[in-house]
Structure formats: structure tokens, C-alpha cells
Amino acid sequence: MIPGFGISFGYTLTCLGLIVLLPLAGLVVKASGLGLSGIWDVATDPRVASALRISFGVSAIAALVASVFGFLVAWVLTRYRFPGRKLVDAAVDLPFALPTAVAGIALASLYAPDGLLGAPLARLGIRAAYTPIGIFIAMVFIGLPFAVRTVQPLIAEIDKEIEEASATLGATRFGTLTRVVLPPLIPAVLTGFALAFARGVGEYGSIIFIAGNLPYVSEIAPLLIVIKLSEFDYGGAAAIATIMLGISFLTLLAINLIQAWSRRRFGYV
């Protein structure tokens, strides 16, 4: 047993309880004041249901896209040397440091119908800003760093001699990629997906500027919570937050179970 385990373990549980569990418990207690029927009525309200579908549906798609492109970016930054590599590597972390409101304004200006990228898209009949497409763009923007940073260290640890050995044994480049390179990276890719998904679901500042915030079209659940609070409907806001908490918990639990299965399946623990 590590010396000081009792004190450190007690300190950990205390901090976890005060910082994480206690506020969440308070949220659930506040929502429970409506009763199960009241929470169900909130969950089945057409406007709330639409906002939840947009938040979780677009977040899942954006996290998937961010995971794919994040893997490619991490691979290029790790395996190749090119001029400006350090600058590109530093730019990946910009969404971490950039205030969400600044990111939202920048994205809205860029993808507006008269923006630098929005105008060419508008000529093609594609409207990005003030639609669910704008929400998707914002979620990919904030989720990409998570996808890159979770995979990048593991790519750096993969010995190139393993790939060379696979090639000498007759494997094609695609076979080496799918059977040698990707298996140890799958848990990290899933972790990046989970982090990007969680960040997207809870994001507010960078989305409201580009979403348009139209009910049943581009209104996200966090914005609906703010609207409920501005109307002094604290029970309704707590109910929506509790529903989001439950869905997020079940989704992340499923992802963690898939992660554990992939570690056992491919032998990387």
C-alpha cells in the first residue's frame, strides 16, 4: 500500500464530492421538485425535444468528424517535418485559449452570407451561418483540439520499426495501417471523440452567434436553459439540465465501455 493512501484518498473523495457531486446532486434535487410527471412533460415538450435532438445529434456528428480529422492532423504533426510545423502545432490549441464569444463572432463573420467563406457557399445554395450547419462548424472547431491531443502522444510512441517489420512480412500499406497502427490508437480516438462530444453538448458561447437560435431549427439546449432562467422558470431549467446530464452520462458510459472492450480486444491495456 502506498504511504499516505488514506489521507490522499479521503482528500480526493472530499474534493470530488464538493466540486462535482454536490452541485449535480443539487441540480437533481431542484428538478425533482417537479416530480417525474413534470420532468417528463418538460422532456416531451416539442421545443425542448427539438433542442435536445439538435444538441446531441449535431454534437455526435461533429465529434465524429473531429475525431477523423484530428487523427489526420495528429499523424501529420507527429510523423512529418515541414516548415511552420511548430506554428501549426500551436494553432491546434487556439480553441482552448480563445474566448468562446470571440470564436463565435469570428465564425459567424466568416460563414455569414456575405462572409469570406459564406458568400461562395451561398452561391452554391448552401447557407452555413444561422442554421444547424453553423452549429456543426462551431462544434468541430471546439472539439478538434481534444481529438488531436489525445491521439498525438500515442502516435509518437509507436515504433516505426513495427511498421517496417510489417512491410517486410508482406503487408500492404493499408494492411499495416489497419492491423498494426490503428488498433493501439482506437482507445485514444474514442477518448478524443468522448471529449469532443461532451464539449460540444455543453458549448454555448461559440454557438449562439452562428446558430441563429431559431426554435425547432437551430436552438440548442443550453440556450433554452438560459431562456428558462431569464423567465425565472428555475424548475424547468433544472429539468432540462438534468435530462442533459442523464443523456450525457449514459452516452459517455457507453463510450467508456467500448473503450474497455477495445483494450481487451486488441490487447492494449
UniProtKB/TrEMBL annotation:
<keyword id="KW-0764">Sulfate transport</keyword>
<feature type="transmembrane region" description="Helical">
    <location>
        <begin position="54"/>
        <end position="78"/>
    </location>
</feature>
<feature type="domain" description="ABC transmembrane type-1">
    <location>
        <begin position="52"/>
        <end position="255"/>
    </location>
</feature>
<feature type="transmembrane region" description="Helical">
    <location>
        <begin position="234"/>
        <end position="258"/>
    </location>
</feature>
<dbReference type="InterPro" id="IPR035906">
    <property type="entry name" value="MetI-like_sf"/>
</dbReference>
<feature type="transmembrane region" description="Helical">
    <location>
        <begin position="124"/>
        <end position="148"/>
    </location>
</feature>
<dbReference type="GO" id="GO:0015419">
    <property type="term" value="F:ABC-type sulfate transporter activity"/>
</dbReference>
<protein>
    <recommendedName>
        <fullName>Sulfate transport system permease protein CysT</fullName>
    </recommendedName>
</protein>
<keyword id="KW-1133">Transmembrane helix</keyword>
<dbReference type="InterPro" id="IPR011865">
    <property type="entry name" value="CysT_permease"/>
</dbReference>
<keyword id="KW-0813">Transport</keyword>
<comment type="subunit">
    <text>The complex is composed of two ATP-binding proteins (CysA), two transmembrane proteins (CysT and CysW) and a solute-binding protein (CysP).</text>
</comment>
<keyword id="KW-0472">Membrane</keyword>
<feature type="transmembrane region" description="Helical">
    <location>
        <begin position="180"/>
        <end position="198"/>
    </location>
</feature>
<comment type="function">
    <text>Part of the ABC transporter complex CysAWTP (TC 3.A.1.6.1) involved in sulfate/thiosulfate import. Probably responsible for the translocation of the substrate across the membrane.</text>
</comment>
<dbReference type="InterPro" id="IPR005667">
    <property type="entry name" value="Sulph_transpt2"/>
</dbReference>
<dbReference type="InterPro" id="IPR000515">
    <property type="entry name" value="MetI-like"/>
</dbReference>
<feature type="transmembrane region" description="Helical">
    <location>
        <begin position="204"/>
        <end position="227"/>
    </location>
</feature>
<comment type="similarity">
    <text>Belongs to the binding-protein-dependent transport system permease family. CysTW subfamily.</text>
</comment>
<keyword id="KW-0812">Transmembrane</keyword>
<dbReference type="GO" id="GO:0005886">
    <property type="term" value="C:plasma membrane"/>
</dbReference>
<dbReference type="Pfam" id="PF00528">
    <property type="entry name" value="BPD_transp_1"/>
</dbReference>
<comment type="function">
    <text>Part of the ABC transporter complex (TC 3.A.1.6.1) involved in sulfate/thiosulfate import.</text>
</comment>
